[in-house]
Amino acid sequence: MTEPIVQLQNLSKTIRGKQLIQQLNIDLYPGQITGFLGPNGAGKTTTIRMMTGLMHPTEGNVIIDGLSLKEHYEEAISKVGVIVENPEMYKFMSGYKNLLHFARMHKNVTKERIQEVIQQVGLENRIHEKVSTYSLGMRQRLGLAQALLHRPKFLILDEPTNGLDPAGIREFRMYLRKIASEEGVSVFVSSHLLSEIELMCDRVAVIQNGQLIDLRDIHNESSSFYYVEAQPKEQVSAYLEQCDFNFVAENQGYVVEMKKEDVPAMTTQLVQAGIQLFAVQPHQKTLEDQFLEMTGGGQIAEANSK
Ligand SMILES: Nc1ncnc2c1ncn2[C@@H]1O[C@H](COP(=O)(O)OP(=O)(O)OP(=O)(O)O)[C@@H](O)[C@H]1O
């Protein structure tokens, strides 16, 4: 099993008696993109500040590539790349000069490495033009190039696509996925854009009131939802209830949470009970639905919660 590159261990923060973050435990792995979701005020920024050493935890620790941020700050932080919402750039200088400038802040960033990151973010045709002529999307990608210069093993992005149009978001997402797989970087992205996280990430961590309430792979086959349409509906819902399935009414049928291997038995039993089946098909429950349910902000009134 691959070792985690970053470990949040019982990470907690209390300010003036108020517990903002409570015992967060999260492992992040190389090559994976993990989304960090939570309602406003949940504690995302506070967590990221602790992960980047800008704020000291009250309790717990952040381990980066085996090094404690508390005890080996310089070495641990040298493995981290950070992109904030609007990366600071010298607009009157070219993209290339900006990268040269930031390269000097690190040891051992060669000209070859600068060329490599320029290619990775697709800026080779415009890199010698002034940043003031760049679109917001290009500036974000320059920010990404800057964050990658020193070959970080871990990349943190706080609301990276804020302000980008859909095409810019798609482009940024594509580059980020490429970088995670080509460089084996572990990426941690905080965002409010749930649909964006769903497309961009392999996993999602959800926090609420400073506590981790969910950490899951989001393209995992084992947590499956199926759309079942059959008549008469009352008989179908009675059957689903009796089988202890969680289900929600949707359109003419129900969205049912069940294991793949349980599907054949369910369809056989429905048919044997004289129920007319119209559809049983995999249902892609959006991350937004799941998130709203988890945080209690969604339409779960109809859900049959057992
Ligand atoms: N320095 C501070 N002193 C006291 N309370 C703070 C401080 N910084 C943040 N908070 C509180 O901690 C909680 C978490 O804030 P944080 O900014 O980490 O949330 P967030 O998830 O990033 O929110 P948003 O999505 O709105 O950016 C909030 O209730 C906030 O008011």
UniProtKB/TrEMBL annotation:
Protein name: ABC transporter ATP-binding protein
Keyword field contains Acetylation: no
A GO term, aspect molecular function: ATP binding
Family that this chain belongs to: Belongs to the ABC transporter superfamily.
Gene3D superfamilies: P-loop containing nucleotide triphosphate hydrolases (3.40.50.300)
Keywords recorded for this protein, A-Z: ATP-binding, Nucleotide-binding, Transport
Domain ABC transporter span(s) in chain numbering: 6-234
Phylogenetic lineage: Bacteria, Bacillati, Bacillota, Bacilli, Bacillales
